[in-house]
C-alpha cells in the first residue's frame, strides 16, 4: 500500500493540471523493494520513530490469509460504490517508481468511491487511490498470485484497504476489459515520475466481485513506510482474471514491489525476532516464528482499534457537500 505526503500530493495535482506528462508532476517515494532501500531497511529510512512500526509493529501487513479460520465480512453488511469522476474517457495513471497508481479526487482524471460496513464503528470510508503490487502481497492459504490491486479508503485518519488478487488467463484478449483498458498505455510510463491516460474504466464487474465476496478481514497496517497500523483490511477471497499479455506489460514497468509476508497479527515483528535470534536467542525457545493458522485472524477485524482512538462516526452518508458533488455515490 502506498501513502503520499500531503505536500507531494498537492504538488502532483498542481503540476498535473498543467501537463500530465511532466515528469516533475509525480512525486516519488524514497523507499524501494530491493537492496538497501528494500523492506528490511525501511525502518531506518527516516528519523525514528517515523518508520518504527516497520520493524517493531505487531500487526503488520501483508499476511497469509488462512481461509479456514479467517474472519469474513457478511456481504449483506458491506456496501461499495466506485467509479470515474468523469464518466467518459480515461483516468490518470502514474508511475511512482514504487507502484502504478490512480488517485482519487474531484478533478478530471480521478476516481471517486466509498465503502461502508454495517456495525463498523468507523466510516464511511472515502477512496484515496487505487494501486498495484507484483507479485501479490497477501497470500491465500500460502499461495501467492501474480498481481494484487489495493483500493485505499480513508475515514478521518483511519485506513481501510481492499485487496484484490489476480490470476493469469490466456485466450483471446481481453479476458478482463477493465484491466486491459487500465493498462492500455502502460508502456508509455516506463520511467518513474511519468503518467499517462487509461482507457475508459467500467467498475461494475470488479465492484460486483468485491461485493459478492468472500471478503476476509483483519486488523493490519500499510504495507509501505510508515507501516501505520490499525488499518482495516478486506481481502477478496476469489481471484479476478488477468490476461497474460496485460500482466507482462505491467510487470515490465512495475518490476517487483511486494513486501514479504509478515508475522500473524499480534505476534512479534519478524525483524525484531530475527534481531533477537542473531543476538543469541534460540528459535526453539519461541513459537513466535510459527504462523498459527488456527488463530491467525480470530479476534481481529472490525472491533479492533475501537478503544477510544477516535470519535465514532455513524455509518451514514450524511456528507451533503460530498454527495452534492458526486451523485454517483448513491448506494
Ligand atoms: Zn499497496
From TrEMBL:
UniProt EC number: 4.2.1.1
The organism's place on the tree of life at top rank: Eukaryota
Pfam families named among the record's database cross-references: Carb_anhydrase
Signal peptide extent: 1-17
SMART domains tied to this protein: Carb_anhydrase
Keyword Metal-binding: yes
PROSITE patterns according to UniProt: ALPHA_CA_1, ALPHA_CA_2
Gene3D superfamilies attached to this UniProt entry: Alpha carbonic anhydrase (3.10.200.10)
Cofactors demanded by this protein: Zn(2+)
GO molecular function: carbonate dehydratase activity; zinc ion binding
Family listed: Belongs to the alpha-carbonic anhydrase family.
Function, in words: Reversible hydration of carbon dioxide.
Protein name, UniProt field: Carbonic anhydrase
